[in-house]
Amino acid sequence: MVGAATVLGGCVLLYLVLDLTLLPSSNHNAPLTRETHSNSRWGKQFESSLEKLEGDIKRNQNKVQEIKNAIDTISNFVNQRTESKEIDSNKFQNNLERDLYAGDEAETCPATSAEADINMLDLYNSIPFDNADGGVWKQGWNIEYNKQQWGPRRKLRIFLIPHSHNDPGWLKTFEDYYHSQTQAILTNLVNKLSEDSRRKFIWAEVSYLMLWWSEQGQENKDKMRRLVESGQLEIVTGGWVMNDEANSHFWAVVQQLTEGHEWLMQHLGVRPKHAWAIDPFGHSATNAYLLKKSQIAASLIQRVHYSVKKRLAQDKGLEFRWRQGWSNEKSDMLTHMMPFYSYDVPHTCGPDPKVCCQFDFKRLPGYGVTCPWRISPQPITNDNVRQRAELLLDQYRKKAQLYRTNVLLVPLGDDFRFDHSAEWDAQFNNYQALFDHLNARQDLYVEAQFATLSDYFSALKIEVGGEKRLPSLTGDFFTYADRDDHYWSGYFTSRPYYKRLDRVLIGYLRAAEVIFSLAWSHGKATSSNGSPWLLSPHAGLRNKLTIARQANALFQHHDGVTGTAKDHVMRDYGNKMIKAIDSVQHVIQMSAQYLLYNQANPELDPNDIYFHLDDTRPRTGALSKRNKITFGEGLDTRKVVLFNSLNRARTEFVRLRVANYNVMVTDQSHRPLPSQVQPLFDEMASMVDGEYELLFIVTVPPLSLTTFLISWTSNADERAPLASVSLANHQGQHKLHSAEGFEQIGSLPEGQNIKVNSQQISAVFSSHGLLKSVSTQGITMTVKLEFVRYGAVEGRERSGAYLFLPDGPAKVVMLKQAPLVRVISGPVATQIEVQHPFVLHQATIYNCSGEVGSSIEMVNLVELVNGKNIEVAMRLTSDIESGDTYYTDLNAFQMIERRRQLHKLPLQAHYFPMSGMAYIEDSGIRLSVISGQPLGAASLSSGQLEIMQDRRLAQDDNRGLNQGVEDNHPTPNVFRLLLERKSCHSEQWPRASLAAHLSHQSLLWPLVHLIAAGDPLVQLKGSFSPETSSECGLHVLNLRTSWLTERPRVGLVMHQLAWDECLPPPVGLSCTPRMSSMLNVSAVLPTSFGRQMQKSSLTFLHTGEQLPTNTNQSLCPNELAAFLLA
Ligand SMILES: [Zn+2]
Questions:
Q1: How many angstroms is it from 734 CA to the middle of ligand 1?
Q2: Centroid of ligand 1 to alpha carbon of 182 (angstroms)
Q3: Which of 114, 362, 735, 777 falls between 20 and 30 A from 20, CA-CA?
Q4: What percentage of residues in the chain have a pLDDT greater than 90?
Q5: Ligand 1 center to residue 528 CA distance, Å?
């Protein structure tokens, strides 16, 4: 191995020399853009190497010629070596690439935004977006080429990659697709590949592999293992699904990737090396980062705006090193972007779909699929092979003009292809005949073969002379348009009920992962036999965790969390998610009971319910149901345990339902907590009888369980204060009913503003109950909240699940009369509630210090259950001079700058995914909206931010779904709104404030409410609270128990939050707001996790050196680091 590596290194160097000096610049290393060539570091480096090498050539032409002759022999050898090395590495290599991970010594963290050859924001400024007709390649140009660029030593090498795109749910459910097609595809795969060792295939969706594998006998399993080992079959990406990159939260992306990778390791012994994302509707830089940290070496993407593709193709920039805007070249992901409209065969062999379609042999007459260009494929025969091969080669050669090298990637496949064995024969036999002819022809200088992504990228890296020769790129690929003004910004919001359910599920799933890992490691450390009961099969918790992990992973599919599947498929995802929530709630309550038990490692009844989790959904489409805490004879105190899954102390509000208004809440030492009791409403002016809401403020330690007592009391001095209730605009149109204890209902003067003051915020609401202005941190600012609506443009192409095609600017939702407004006010919170058309809007200001008191909480219960072609958005208009710049996030992991260009891009192009937050700012003030669910967001004029809430569309938008979006359910969209003073201007990359980060954590990873199910037979401990540090910025992303090895281990992922220090942290935080680039795991976790750990890749497949947990390591802002604990 060592010898081979040396030879390889030497050859790459020699090849690089040749590349630079002997090849025509028309095809190689063409300047990327004018600026790149002259200005960038890359350009300068290239120029000076070129000059130096040219000088060398003149001095010693003969020597160079000798090298050139030697190369052809050696490069063939290198290619063979590389292929066999890939196979070896799939099987055996388990080394963690050192530079990907935190080092022991302090490293310098990037202080400014990354520099790159291509910056997507600048590129957008320079692209005309004129949608010119390019001829046969409609969105490009008429490609020409010079045959002289190929010769005996410069062959065009074709890598044809057969694939089948299997959506885990879209028009059919995951299971229905499996039974109708995917099962046969995978069975054919093992049989048809085994017939001929020249055949290759790639597979992406591990969820389907899992189903298929579970039904196979030993023979088929062995066949598949052999195919993977021989390199005929490559598993690409290895995620549970091919995840959506717009709406997905990065926590869930890591989760679905880990789920897939663990399965692959367990059953096929394989660690994926390359990624394949041909169908997600736009691509996120976060995804590239997560793949990089999972030790994926290169990746392929497809759905990118057609004008961006054209520009990159013109500049030969379709292959690049995708760099994080906040990092340096350490984060670079080698990326191949496909150039044309689609991943189907007509759009992958070359620029002319009419020709390429003739090389999709599933469309041979008689198979039931035809070519829309009306020229059918022909079976390849001795008589026609010459003509057919030349016709195909012409397309390949044209496509090759768009890339820098003479290796060419050509996918061969489509949705659910290769389900019949006849199709395998038709494709593989006809292509083999074409390849045999092409490879035999001395005059064509071409080599064609079936290939995997590994084959292609290995060849590319050698051909290009090392990936550092490719340009670097920062930015992302949103918002995707596939043609004309068809921007795919509708799916950022489609089916918000399910999008919110996704976030509820990941909240519980993460809490379950953390508490389960805490509990069994604690049990192991404290029990005499070191074998924690929680891990026993009898406890049944592993199975419950698996159900939830797989349901959540499945929904990350690009027709899942996107909301672009058929109604019944969405319901199926919903049912799976609700079952998943039930499952992990069970894990949480068992783990809590286990941790609080008075004896080490107790054996619990696996079917017992010790705690109710105060949040259930009886069916898909239903809102959350809460537990009512009741009191009875001899039961005047109820226990509530709160679980904090964060590794920092936090101060939060808790809302519980109680059956009586005469209640008090205390900690375990019977000290009362700040609280209030308020009525609940079943109609606008009608209170519910016999049920109230108790609100209280708690501060809880990191990674802890803490018990609180809710007691019934007859003593009026002890009980929680009752909130006052006032109504505005009540003109008798609503039935008035008051509950016991709240007989006094105030009335607010007509047309008068409503003012609310708390410790940190003063806010003014209009007489219609909507925010008008905010004062905080010495700033007073207009922040006007409105609901606006869009219609769908008339014509053949209209808005649907994917597309947003508005009929013009939004119109403000007008009211026929002043709406009834409820103002509920007590010592700890003031809540304003108003029913607007489509939305029950609630704004709450909490009267406390810390991050919760620094923001306004907003809940929009959106009900778009009637009407046709309506899209409703919440719009905030402020005096902030934000110009044409705004910021949205990518997968709630990083912020990215957006620019408004209404002069050349339509309104719908300005909607971007808001997975976690968005903000606008000027030199002195920032307005952030933090979101508890993914939605689309835009800033359509200076000072404005708008967030789409729901959409109801009566028609299909011609992207295959074949239905509109009319299955809307009432959906509670939750937000926090933050107005912050900026004390300076940061030169660093865009980043959220600390308050915004903490608010996001508060929405996503809430305190878990555990209501004791009854009078417990055993006395439980009042708390579980390990001694750990409590820094605000060092975040335990996950503590995940893994069964990959014989004994379970806990995988830890740490995230160093990056926040903008120009926005000072809120006063009175319960965690320590220290900006750090260091990590010491032993300070973060309890000692039960042991004193040793291994560094690891993000999905735990690659592990590095063993080291003590108390090692000080550098972890730069925004970086993730993973470890396997002992
Ligand atoms: Zn798909």
A1: 48
A2: 14
A3: 114
A4: 86
A5: 51
Residue, of 9 and 337, whose pLDDT is higher? 337
Calpha distance 645→302 (Å, rounded) = 38
Taking the chain, what is the end-to-end CA distance rounded to the nearest angstrom? 31
Q: Is the pLDDT of residue 423 over 60?
A: yes
Whether the CB-CB separation of 154 and 23 falls below 8 Å is answered with yes
Q: State the number of CA atoms in the 13 A half-sphere of 296 facing the CB.
A: 30
Ligand 1 (ion): residues with CB under 5 Å are 167, 279
62-74 pLDDT per residue, tens: 443 444 444 433 3
**Ligand 1 midpoint to CA 297 (Å):** 23
* Cβ contacts of 211 within 8 Å, gap of 6 or more: 175, 178, 182, 183
Q: 243 CA to middle of ligand 1, Å?
A: 9
Cα separation, 884 vs 1042, whole angstroms: 47
pLDDT in tens, 770-808: 999 999 999 999 999 999 999 999 999 999 999 999 999
**C-alpha 558 to ligand 1 mean position (Å):** 6
CB 233 within 8 A of CB 199: no
Beta-carbon count within 10 A of 405 CB? 23
Of 894, 904, 909, 895, the C-alpha closest to 939 is 909
Helices (H) and strands (E) in the chain, counts: 22, 48
Please name every residue paired with 678 in a beta bridge, in sequence order, or none if there are none: 693
Over 80: is that where the pLDDT of 48 sits? no
**Could you tell me if 995 and 851 are in contact, meaning their C-beta atoms sit under 8 angstroms apart?**
yes
Question: H or E stretch including 1050?
Answer: strand 1049-1056
Place of tokens 């350490």: 330
CA distance 856 to 1067: 16
Determine the Cα–Cα distance for residues 36 and 50; give it in Å rounded to an integer. 16
Identify which has the larger pLDDT, 22 or 952. 952
Both tokens of 685, joined, read 């002016």
3-state secondary structure of 828: coil
> In angstroms, how far is CA 810 from the centroid of its own chain?
29
Q: Judge contact between 240 and 556, C-beta under 8 A.
A: yes
- Distance in Å, CA 229 to ligand 1 centroid: 27
Q: How far is the CA of 279 from the centre of ligand 1 (A)?
A: 5
90 pLDDT above the threshold of 50? no
Does 104 score more than 80 pLDDT?
no
957 annotated active-site: no
Going by pLDDT thresholds of 50, 70 and 90, the confidence category of residue 1076 is confident
**468, two tokens:** 């550092």
Neighbours of 195 (CB within 10 A): 12
- 940 alpha carbon to ligand 1 midpoint, in Å? 31
Question: Any idea what the Cα angle at residue 503 is, between residues 165 and 952, rounded to 5°?
Answer: 70
Whether 1051 contacts 1102, CB under 8 Å? no
pLDDT of residue 49: 45
Question: What is the per-residue DSSP string for 152-210?
Answer: TTB-EEEEEEEEEE--SSSSS-HHHHIIIIIHHHHHHHHHHHHT-TT--EEE--HHHHH
**Average model confidence (pLDDT) for the chain?**
91
Which pLDDT band, with edges at 50, 70 and 90, does 810 fall under? very high
Chain Cα centroid distance, residue 13: 38
CA angle 1105, 1106, 1110 (to 5 degrees): 120
Residue 823's H or E segment, with its range, is: strand 821-825
What burial letters (b/e) apply to 544-580, b meaning 16+ CB within 10 Å?
bbebbbbbbbbbbbbbbbbbbbbeebbbbbbebbbeb
Q: What is the pLDDT of residue 404?
A: 97
In the prediction, which pLDDT does 66 show? 41
pTM (predicted TM-score): 0.91
Largest alpha-carbon pair distance within the chain?
A: 103
d(Cα 870, Cα 825) in Å, to the nearest integer? 34
Which residues, at least 6 apart from 634, have a Cβ–Cβ distance to it below 8 Å? none
